[in-house]
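Here's my example:
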Amino acid sequence: ATIALALGIAASARPDRRVISFDRLDPQNYIEDAHVVDRNKVDLSATFIQQIRDNIAAFEMQDKVILHFGDVEKMHLKFESPISGLLLDADGAIDRDFKLFYNMLKPGSPVIIDDFDDNAHLWRWSNDRIRVDLKHRLTHQLGQFFMDKGLLEQSHIVRNTFFGYKPKAVTQAVNFDAMDFIPVYRSILFSNVERSQVPIGPVYGTRAIAVQTLKTRTPALYKALRRLLGRSPATSAG
């Protein structure tokens, strides 16, 4: 996303602008099997930072991107000019992100928020644990909260990415410290989960559905694969 924004700036009428990117360097974002890494013993930050810099350099966008690593709320944020766009794809705490950046954002500027859908997400974290991720639903509820307050307007949603903008009518600074976000966080206590994301037995729900589809539509291939795996299709649930 950072590279895409930088490429857009380079091709725009204002190529002098920059993308300011924040990354907390959470290993869960970079390793498919993050649970096998002891984050207290293994520091992969240097590897991640170098990979990020190499990726940006591969598109020759290093002069268009300013990188900050660490927790954004712990940094001293100083900008010489207003922000003309905001993309959020972090931990779902967009109440914190709005408090940090909203008043710097020019009215009418685009706001893009990823992981924006009203569902909980589940996946197998280890052999005996299921990870419950409410980030998407929290992001959705906070986004709705800001829309109800007249601080955010929706343009459209593509899959689970929100595209909108800061209303042009909001020209005064907003006091986010005076807002009560507790009801929003309480609203995620009871959450829906898409059926395809509920783990079934030793496999993910999506995998079980795929097996059932294969069994129904191409039974000959299904039986051949089961024989190849040394399992009887008559006694296996997939």
Residues 32-36, 233-238 have pLDDT under 50 and may be disordered. The chain has seven helices and eight strands. The longest helix spans residues 45-58. The beta strands are 19-23, 65-69, 86-88, 110-113, 121-126, 129-133, 153-158, 161-165.
